[in-house]
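Narrative of accomplishments. A recurring question from our advisory board has been how the design workflow behaves on a single, concrete structure rather than in aggregate. To address it, we present the structure tokens for one chain from the evaluation set, followed by the sequence designed for it. No filtering or post-editing was applied between the two.
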């Protein structure tokens, strides 16, 4: 048994050690990492994963409702309201992300398995090096998001403790101060329960960070893996004609054309599988991406205004970290979507550059079929938005316009 396991591990491609490395950690902490398919069915989720999810959902939901309610009650003070609306909006979107992944866990697990199969198919060193490079980039961006989110949550939770310690040292009157501006029942802030409330609010912030670092990192990793598979298709197309050594002939022979058609048929099958996977991934992410993009300009605007209007240096530092996390979140979606569209369109460029003119009419029709489908770049599009780098610039511009408008009322 041990020998067979070692043999199976030895056959794992290089990409295996990098597959969703950072998002997997965050997803397991909040109990929503899609379970791997085993045999013909989906592996049963362990009971402790359900408990972790329920705890994360509960504390994040309480934080979202309490903070948004606080902002609505204190609309007369813009700075105080924004300090509540900003994290409250992020938590509300995270509640949606948690629920979508938990509710459709089997579908997510099936998508992960399909993507694993596509990545594991190519064992060539050149292809694996390319995939590992893309996976490393995705994991580094995911780690940046996790780190910036953790720094933001730490700053929120340390600020009241630092201010309380300062008041104690200066012998100033103390008062109850929580990590977030939030409305809670009166008993929750009583002296006996206050430490428990503080810890639960800290957990609410931490679960929010792990939730969005998993979901957003999962999206980026999936997009870069899809980009990698499109690039594998490009490599396969180039290799088909390179292996023929057709430089010495002006026209391919019948045998050479038959070989090209046979190998192109496999390319067509893989290309269709990738496009179908993109469609299914888009369907699963539609609500998440739509809500994230709708809230992105408001969150960015709120964080930047908090930095500009806040007189406390500690609060300013907190919202600088928040701005970095919010910008990273938005950039991951736009960068991932951009990579998918560019790599899918690049397949058409590769087909145009090969020696298609040496093929017979039957083979050219196969090439033309792939070419025409490749010219329609595949995108991760949702209603009103298509994640891309131009969209990233557009949202930043919108946030700047909101800031300029709001400043006129201050």
């Amino acid at each position: 048994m041990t020998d067979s396991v070692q043999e199976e591990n030895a056959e794992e491609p290089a990409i295996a050690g990098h597959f969703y490395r950072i998002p997997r950690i965050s997803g397991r902490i909040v109990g929503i990492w899609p379970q791997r398919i085993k045999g013909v069915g989906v592996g049963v989720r362990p009971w402790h994963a359900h408990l972790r999810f329920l705890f994360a959902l509960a504390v994040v939901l309480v934080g979202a409702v309490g903070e948004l309610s606080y902002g609505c009650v204190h609309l007369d003070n813009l700075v105080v309201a924004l300090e509540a609306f900003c994290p409250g909006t992020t938590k509300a979107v995270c509640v949606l992300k948690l629920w979508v992944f938990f509710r459709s866990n089997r579908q997510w697990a099936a998508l992960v398995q399909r993507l694993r199969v596509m990545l594991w198919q190519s064992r060539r060193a050149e292809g694996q090096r390319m995939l590992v490079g893309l996976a490393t980039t995705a994991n580094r961006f995911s780690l940046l998001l996790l780190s910036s989110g953790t720094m933001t949550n730490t700053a929120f939770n340390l600020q009241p403790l630092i201010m309380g310690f300062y008041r104690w040292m200066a012998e100033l009157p103390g008062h109850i101060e929580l990590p977030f501006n939030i409305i809670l029942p009166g008993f929750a802030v009583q002296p006996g329960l206050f430490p428990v409330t503080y810890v639960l609010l800290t957990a609410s912030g931490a679960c929010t960070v792990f939730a969005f670092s998993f979901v957003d990192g999962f999206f980026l990793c999936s997009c870069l893996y899809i980009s990698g598979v499109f690039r594998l298709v490009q490599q396969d197309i180039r290799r088909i004609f390179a292996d023929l050594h057709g430089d010495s002939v002006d026209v391919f022979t019948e045998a050479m054309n038959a070989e090209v058609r046979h190998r192109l048929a496999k390319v067509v099958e893989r290309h269709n599988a990738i496009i179908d996977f993109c469609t299914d991934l888009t369907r699963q992410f539609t609500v998440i991406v739509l809500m994230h993009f709708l809230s992105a300009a408001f969150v960015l605007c709120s964080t930047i205004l908090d930095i500009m209007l806040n007189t406390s240096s500690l609060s300013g530092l907190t919202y600088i970290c928040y701005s970095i996390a919010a910008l990273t979140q938005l950039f991951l979606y736009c960068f991932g979507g951009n990579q998918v569209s560019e790599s899918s369109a690049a397949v058409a460029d590769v087909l145009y550059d090969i020696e298609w003119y040496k093929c017979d009419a039957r083979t050219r029709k196969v090439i033309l079929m792939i070419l025409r489908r490749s010219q329609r770049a595949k995108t991760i599009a949702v209603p009103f938005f298509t994640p891309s780098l131009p969209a990233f610039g557009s949202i930043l511009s919108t946030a700047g316009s909101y800031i300029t408008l709001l400043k006129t009322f201050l």
